[in-house]
Amino acid sequence: SESNGKANTDKIMARSDNNYFDAFKWCRAKGSSWYLPAKDELKRIYNYKDMLNSTLSQYGGTALTNYWYWSSTESVEDKPEFRAWSVGMIIGYASSSIKYPYYYVRAVSAF
Question: How does the average pLDDT of the chain come out, rounded?
């Protein structure tokens, strides 16, 4: 899904091979309500980045950096098992990229 990271995370965590999905496991280890956001959710986070960083700073949280963050949305182009969407927190641009470990991950929880 491009808009439902919780459903994406639930789907991955239900797989018998979920031990290969470190980003999803890290998010879910925070609790059952935590998940890896979908592409559109990350774009919304970008839209509120300054406000979120201010609040995170106030409560001792880790601010969003001006770097790329993985989403839970796989890319449908050319072998989706090897590609996923990421969102750059510099300008909010989404890009389909080959899955490699050099981007950041941000866990979110619905409230």
Answer: 93
